[in-house]
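Memo to structure team: turn this sequence into structure tokens by end of day. - J.P.
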Amino acid sequence: MATQPTTSYQRQIKRYGVILFCLCAFFFGLIPYGGVRSSDSEVVFRVGESLALRGVFYVEHDLEDWHSFGVATGKSNRLYAIFGPLESILLAPIIKVGDLVNETGWYKPLSPILPLSHFTEGGFFDYLEGRHTQTPRPHALRTFTSFFNVFMTSFCVFVFWQILLLLTKSIPASFLVSIIYAFGTHAWPYAGTFFSEPLATLLVLLSFFYLLKAGEPEASGEGNRTNRPVFLSGIWMGLAITAHITAALYAPFFALYFFWRDIENRPSLLGRLERGAVFAVGVFILLFLLGWYNYFRFGSFFETGRTASAISGEIFGYGTFVYPFRGLYGLIFGAGKGVLFFMPALVLGAFLSKSFLRENRQLFWTVTLAVAFRVLFIASRSDWHGGFCTGPRYLVMAIPFLLIPIAFWLKSHESTRFARAFGFMTVFGLLFSIEQFYFCLAEAFSFLQIWKFNEQLAGFSVFENDIIYLDWKYSPLLSPSSMKISPFLLRWTQLPMGELMALGSVVLLILFFIFYLILLKMPRSASN
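Reply from structure team:
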């Protein structure tokens, strides 16, 4: 099909982008827990609550059932969180509004069916015993703010769609791979949580987007204008680090790409060093602010709180460096975390990487080395598993990069085998999405918490190490009958797990059939 005019191409991008965002916001909006399940997330929420209601970063109380977890004693004997501050800062205005709405008492008639957060007001034990809470207001506040990651993840999909368009110039390939990212990976189940991964992933993707924009013709010019997208890429990367410290693992590879890519266009060593330095300055600005935040709390630019106490790491398992072999096995093949079982879409992307390598060798190696380094780093930590959560949480930030090869593979088949290639990938996307819908329904956190509670009552200590993420006995994949339904909106349907899975699978089948019909009507190539 002929290349589309610029105005037509932009209109289609806008239309399909709006469709993607709205579709994601709707389906992601069905699956939030309606509360805070994770201890990490509860600490992050409490910091946001302190900012909203008292204007301070310290928390007044640690977790009632897990004292001192996730916090450290700083200046003036105050308790400060050990986690990045950005999500708490963004949650603060939402929490403020939620607290004002709670003044109306809207939640009181709904107390018997109000979603319970596990680390406030004895929520876990009420959940375990099937009781409704006697102190509903704190739970109602968390329910009100529980849609935060719905929008963060919807924006992730939208930015990823823009990235794929920049890379492939193919509307159908970009659209289908964006759909697979949205529904066929852990992006979907994590949209229902309070974890920081969706926000950090969004910011890393924005950094990557401007990394690519820096090489576009309209971004080239003279003086400061040339380096504007480079600087913005650094700023977004710095923000990602303030959301989740492991985002920093991408920074050196992004800086290297600015230096490496410009070898042909900027033959002078000084010119190429300038691009990398501008990116580094953007990152440094946010790192300096993060360091100042640490100094304000603990008296050191480099103290996040994790090492403020000599024994906290041992007590709470914050993580130490270990040999990576066990972690690598767990992240790839583990019964509770292995990518092979929990996100097979990423495995498919790895097998289809040849087209990506052929189209953009420098970017391929930058992305490959960045992801490989992240996997190796995470595997070298004793907490490689990410704790009680769905699948490999610390690899959520790597998901979009591992899907890029699929887009290039689809693009390479547009002109010759469109129906077959896109039909093949649509079927795989459907199968991947049905699996992820199961992870949306089946609440792995409560499943593992209940296992831990029962094992401790029986005198076992298996939950004190990572064996539970390697032993199939504890795998969420093989225990659907033991799972409680997670999304509070879907729980109100009163349908059992099996019926919800069947209904959801039918809806996804219809949805992906419509996607395929839309793909057939899209232009086979596009250029801006």
